[in-house]
Amino acid sequence: MTVPSTPGMSWGPVSSLGGQLTGDPAVAPSSDGRLEVFARGRADNALSHCHQQTWGGWSEWENLGAATLAGDPSALRTAARRIGVFFKDGQGNLAHPWQTVINGGYGAGKVLANNIGGNPVPGLHADGRPAAFFRGTDNALWHVWETTKSGYGNWTGPAALGGTLSGDPAVATDARGRLQVFFRGTDGHLWVVRQRDANNNAWESPRNIVQNVGGDPVVGTNADGRLEVFFRGTDNALWHLPQTDDYNGWATLSSLGGILTGNPAVARAADARLATFHWGGGHLWGNEQTIVNGTDWSAWEQIAQNIGGEPVVEADGHGRLDVFFHGTDHAVWHIAQMFGQPAAGYAISP
Prior knowledge:
Elements (H helix, E strand, L loop, with lengths): L9 E2 L3 E4 L2 E9 L5 E7 L5 E5 L10 E2 L10 E4 L5 E6 L5 E3 L13 E4 L7 E4 L5 E6 L5 E5 L13 E4 L7 E4 L5 E6 L5 E5 L12 E4 L7 E4 L5 E6 L5 E5 L11 E4 L7 E4 L5 E7 L2 E6 L12 E5 L6 E4 L5 E6 L5 E7 L12
Antiparallel strand pairs: 1-29, 2-29, 3-4, 4-5, 5-6, 7-8, 8-9, 9-10, 11-12, 12-13, 13-14, 15-16, 16-17, 17-18, 19-20, 20-21, 21-22, 23-24, 24-25, 25-26, 27-28, 28-29
């Protein structure tokens, strides 16, 4: 299929995945490229799940039978080629179910930490080992990590990284293989803490890099490996801060405009440009870099109406971005990018 190389996205129809859900969904790709969606059930607060079928449609929602949720889930695929899900359960624990086989079902999982204060956010070490970061009940940044990349189950106890958080963190692996974690402090500033070296358990102290932050940050990775942080400002516009070319500092903070209701989402499209999405005025809005690794961005485009929560975005097995959100009817809805002519059905990768 033809991947676009000029600004502007073409979108398919908005469609419902059904369900009666609350909060914001999470999405991650299976090893074969099919997307899997996770959300909290509206009636029972249980972890619910649906996934793309091999023929291109979507499954019915399934209760995974894990502990009840007290927040929004998050998910990612690890070096073991299986999806792991992370959430705060009804007892305030960090719960972690995962696929028991590649592209397969989910087990009950295990508790990784007690007394967490916010939604956990996972990331990957340079060697593929997952880690999860969260605000503790003391409002500090805490993390746990897997000790080996060969499978699931062997995790450390929680360790504090300092700081005073007012929301949930964001995490990414930089071009040097170091994990970097971003959060809004109780002072309204953007803070970052990073590993001293790739795959290292030693971390630098939190550093203040921006003021006047109005929401939780998200972070994307440019095609050249530079991180770029996005957040809702105190003026409700979308602001962004890219890394400098040497990967050590931060370039000029600038506004992308818009009027955000909540936190944004960011992903890199198949043509290697970053694209952002947000909930504003009850609608879904998107924009993108005009060139790969560029500093100029397209105008905002209204993509969908009647959304009821913050969007999440992931690339499917064809490389197309797919945006998911909680509708005003409490179902999960999504809208997928379109380009070229994909083969009939869904191409499964090995």
